Amino acid sequence: METLYAITVGTLTACSVFLILRGRSFPIVIGLTMLSYAVNLFLFSTGRLAINELPLIGVGETSTDPLPQALVLTAIVIGFAMTAYSIILAVRVRGEIGSDEVNDTNYAEQEGQR
Amino acid sequence: MNLAAIVFLPFLGAILPLLLAGRSRVQVTVATALVAAVSLTFLVMASPAVFAGETAYFFAEWLPQLGLHIGFRLDGLALLFAGLILIIGILVIIYAHYYLSTEDSAPRFFSCLLLFMGSMLGIVTADNLILMWFFWELTSISSFLLIGYWFHQSNARRGARMALAITGAGGLALLAGLLLIGNIVGSYQLDAVFAAADTIRGHELYLPALILVLIGAFTKSAQFPFQFWLPHAMAAPTPVSAYLHSATMVKAGIFLMARLLPVLGGTTEWFTIVTLTGLATMLFGAYFALLKTDLKGLLAFSTVSHLGLITMLLGLGSTGAVIAALFHILNHATFKAGLFMIAGIIDHETGCRDMRKLSGLRKAMPFTMVLAVITAASMAGIPFFNGFLSKEMFFAEAYQQDLFGGLSWFVPVLATLGAMLSVAYSVRFVHDVFFQEPTHDLPKQPHEPPFMMRVPVIIFATLCLAIGIAPMLIASDLLTPAVAAVTQSVPVLDIAIWHGFNMPLLMSALALIGGLVIYIGRSELLTFSRQFDPHDAKEVFATIVSATTRFCDELMQRIENGSLQRYIALLLVLTLVLVIPELTAIRGLTGGRPQLPVDAISLIGAIVLMLAALATAMLHRQRLTSLMMLSVVGLVVSLVFIHFSAPDLAMTQLVVEAVSIILMILALFFMPQRIPRASSGRRVARDVLLAGTIGGIVGTLNYALLTRPLNSISDFFLANAVSGGGGSNVVNVILVDFRGFDTLGEITVLAIAAAGIHKLLNNLRPFMPSSDVDGRPWHRIKHPLMVQTVAQAILPLALMVSFYIFLRGHNLPGGGFIAGLVTAAAMILQYIANGVDWVKSRFDYNYQTLTSVGVMIALFTGVGSWLFDHNFLTSAFTHVHWPLIGEFELATAILFDLGVYLTVIGATLMILANFGQMTTRHRPRQEGY
């Protein structure tokens, strides 16, 4: 199970890094969002994987580590704020300069490859 | 205390000229001279003890952890230099009063001069190496200001820049050297350093330390090959040249060598480096002094030459050589300052400094001529002038040394050659300017300067003669303690004009005759030297500087080419470079923790998750599809949380996912509809490789982490959640109680992000297409009835659920974050289903206020603990028995959670509702709401 989990997190990271390396703002925001999922999964797993060990007192015999959960919970909300901020920044940039390319326009003319 | 006053008075006094800026120049000059005079008085008051062979100290702690103290010492060496600095300083101030023209700002000049004076005094009296370095750098800065005093002239600016670059770089080398010494000794106090002299000389870091310190000294004292900045510093006003570039600042390097001679000297390395550098500098400077046509240029190179002579003497290091070195410092300061002032007078009264144009001034300026003859004779080393005595001692030392074995004879020979050149340029200075046929095409009609302008020169000339005739009477009291401070033993001084017929006398005679011969044959020499390419140091320096700048520019263009993609790729590569070596060092990736078996559901979930992620990445050009795939990823992630015992996370993730996707669909509306061009194959290959490597490493790390045993601090939270926090949902108790301060920070960040978005949307004019990419108009029914009906029915249910989740959060999965998100999602649904107008007409609430209120409630809940003498955010709880409902728990934490709840609702709606209004008449147009 640990192997599977790690592979999944790795795949998520790889896909989001690929998206972040694109030249347009929208895929980058999608990539950032997915990267925050990957990071959350990673952080969450620092408490190790446990099935049916809810972090509630008096429910089960044992309990999983609640601390990473608390941290990741706020991280999810902050991640949302970050996603929102970056997407709206992208909209604003598109409104201001009429393009969604993230590179310097001079550079774009030189290279012409996105 | 007096010692500190000597140094700090000029610094304080530097304000005085600026305060008197509106007054007459006489007042400014008098005030400046008074500052120096008071400082000199303190010095004189402290001097009797030094003459008696004692050392005066001042000590105050500054940064004891760094070994840095404000410590001053006044021994013979410090006294000699401090005396020179202050006395020559006062004379230069008087001279400058007449020299500066009415357009020049005298307050600025005198203020900089006093700054320089204080820094210089700091160097010579500092008892702490770092403090000495501090003042050393201050002299570089103040000399920069003084050389660049006429900043409207480009050569002044360039000269100042060059001087600062060279001496500044040398200063850094010096700092490194001093730090090495301090590291070896364990203290920066001079006495401790002196005591540890043998340790330092025996240490393996001795040579690096020596070389670094010498670089500092050589750059400051314009020794070969760093001599080139000094002639260009002559763009400074002449008083500055006389003061800084002959008498004081360039002697700082000499002082440093003398100061550290007991510590660093006495080794073969010291002899070889210092002696040879001094010798080379002496010859180099003397030769170029002869070729210069500019009066100040001649003096500048002559200064380089004489500094080389002193350096060479210090390199020899014997007691006799130290006496000769210090004596020559004194003598050089007197005749060279005088000569510079004469050059300044000539420049001032004729408007010309070119020796090819100047001639026959003896009729117009007879008095000045006499002074020039005296000081130049001293520079040439003619008997009965002080220069003769020290040069004679120099010859004796050069003759007596046998440092280079069978080749030792070349030192006295080259020394004599240097002296010949010195005689030649001295004769040239006087003969070219004052004798020969008078010229008439000078910019000004030459005449004698004002009497007071001559006074400083008269004093210098008198000193030249007086010391030259009665050296023991005048100089021995000053020199004896100074030599004692360097050699650390009491010397016997015997300076006399006549030692009988001996080798030094022969060398002097040879130098005089040879010098005259060289002068007579100078035209041959000039013709000879003309065939060489004139390497202007300034141009070489400028070439180096511009080459460096160009190189940096190109580097910047290469690195910073405007491609953000490139930047992020480079950052990622750097990450790999840093992480990969660490990972290869891990032995055995799999840890000892027992692993869970894979079940079918998990396997299917993982496959779906990975496929969705891959699809998101691969279909990124079809944006809506890509977004849908992302939502699949987000939903499966929430399932992952459920599966691995994290119900709170699953709920949060679920709602956040929904809200994010709605937001991004909204944003998609404003994005270009055209499908972007595909990236080039090379770029895709590069990115896939990079992303794959990063993903692989993250996965590896995660695996290594997951298979290792857990050692967590959470046992504390589990044990104390009920007793200390009053709740059985440990995650929530951590959020609102144990780590409440973190949560407070996080909701603040959320509120700030929302405010930032609000600001970004203000006055935004987005592109709003009226049709899709194929030209089809949007559907005319904006709000389908079915959605409207369902949404309206859901709202009360959702509110009830969120209230329930909120209340139970402390004990069961739930809490402020989740409840807030559920409420916000329900509200967003109303906007989507019914439109902004519909919502506004029923619920026109200001979300900014809601957010602020939420943060405030959370904050004041925390502050409330102070009223009960508890720490910030300490929670209290009690159990109340309510009729019908039963036992119910009341905790202050729930108040805090209410703050979280409101903030989350406010921030989420601030983001989404404001953004959604972009297409309507409610879109934000100006400040406020």
From TrEMBL, chain A:
One annotated Gene Ontology cellular component of this protein: plasma membrane
Subcellular location per the Swiss-Prot or TrEMBL entry: Cell membrane
Listed transmembrane segments: 6-21, 28-51, 71-91
Keyword Glycoprotein: no
Main location: membrane
Topological type in the membrane: Multi-pass membrane protein
Top-level lineage group: Bacteria
Keyword terms: Cell membrane, Membrane, Transmembrane, Transmembrane helix
InterPro entries: CPA3_antiporter_subunitC, NUOK/Mnh_C1-like
Family to which the UniProt record says this protein belongs: Belongs to the CPA3 antiporters (TC 2.A.63) subunit C family.
Protein's UniProt name: Na(+)/H(+) antiporter subunit C1
Organism: Pseudidiomarina piscicola
UniProtKB/TrEMBL annotation, chain B:
Gene Ontology biological process: monoatomic ion transport
Pfam annotation, one family: MnhB
Domain NADH-Ubiquinone oxidoreductase (complex I) chain 5 N-terminal: residue ranges: 65-110
Domain (NADH:quinone oxidoreductase/Mrp antiporter transmembrane) ranges: 126-404
Location in the cell: Cell membrane; Membrane
Ligase in keyword set: no
Designated name of the protein: Na(+)/H(+) antiporter subunit A
Name of the encoding gene: mrpA
